[in-house]
Design goal:
By secondary structure, this protein is an alpha+beta fold. It contains seven helices and eight strands, in the order E-E-H-H-H-H-E-E-E-H-E-H-E-E-H. Bound molecules: coenzyme A.
Length: 193
């Protein structure tokens, strides 16, 4: 996937963070992240071949995001030169204003404010380069770090579902966030800056 813009910002340690689109050549790294037990338990991801991941990454272009074509778009978070995590946004197949979010910080970069800042930058990018205005995210009730990230960003709880787990049903919280530009917020009293 190609996006013309990469947004730079600084983390709490004053290192340069940047968001760049994921390319097919990132497939092996993304596969390793997906296979990390921490990620596979929190996101319940199926194991996928690097070919499948690369195909998905090459199928979603910047123009698809701009036009609101249903696809999954992935960004890599860079801390300096080092990949520090990823964010994926899956556009709804019916309504291009709706999308579902998933994300993970790599282990060595966790707990340093990176995901909160990366998502903040991504939301600005979505506001300027896409039609996405309603973001959904799902999170197990025990995933306190992710709950903290979502609630810091202003996500509101929409309800809970139950999913089968190895030791019985597990509760998943459904979260939602409305993105709004300054102009939209002024006209509708909308929520996110
Ligand atoms: C959830 C995840 C993305 C958070 O990334 P991160 O870069 O560590 O996030 P941040 O540092 O921006 O914020 C983490 C917050 O959780 C808090 N936190 C850390 N450990 C915690 C714990 N055990 N209990 C409660 N809060 C905790 C941090 O203090 C911080 O909040 P603060 O800024 O108010 O202090 C990361 O832990 C991860 O990749 N987990 C596995 C994948 C995952 O869960 N993805 C989301 C699926 S819904």
């Amino acid at each position: 996937m190609l996006l013309p813009l990469a947004r730079s910002f600084s983390d709490s340690l004053n290192q340069i963070l940047a968001l760049r689109p994921a390319y097919p050549r990132d497939a092996r790294m993304i596969q390793a992240w997906r296979r990390d037990s921490r990620t596979s338990t929190t996101l319940r991801l199926f194991d996928r071949s690097t070919k499948e991941i690369a195909r998905e990454l090459s199928a979603a272009t910047a123009i698809d995001l701009y036009l609101g074509h249903a696809a999954k778009f992935t960004w890599i978070i860079l801390r300096g030169e080092m990949p520090a995590g990823w964010i994926a946004v899956s556009l709804d197949s019916v309504d291009p204003q709706r999308a579902e979010l998933s994300y993970a910080t790599s282990r060595r970069h966790e707990g340093q404010g990176i995901m909160t800042q990366a998502l903040t930058a991504l939301f600005r990018q979505l506001l300027s380069d896409s039609h996405v205005r309603e973001l959904a995210a799902r999170c197990f009730t025990w995933n306190t770090r992710s709950i903290r990230v979502l609630e810091k960003l202003g996500f509101a709880r929409d309800g809970e579902d139950s999913l089968p787990g190895a030791c019985g049903p597990e509760r998943v919280i459904r979260y939602g966030l409305t993105l709004a530009t300054d102009t939209e917020r002024d006209s509708k009293g909308a929520i996110w800056r």
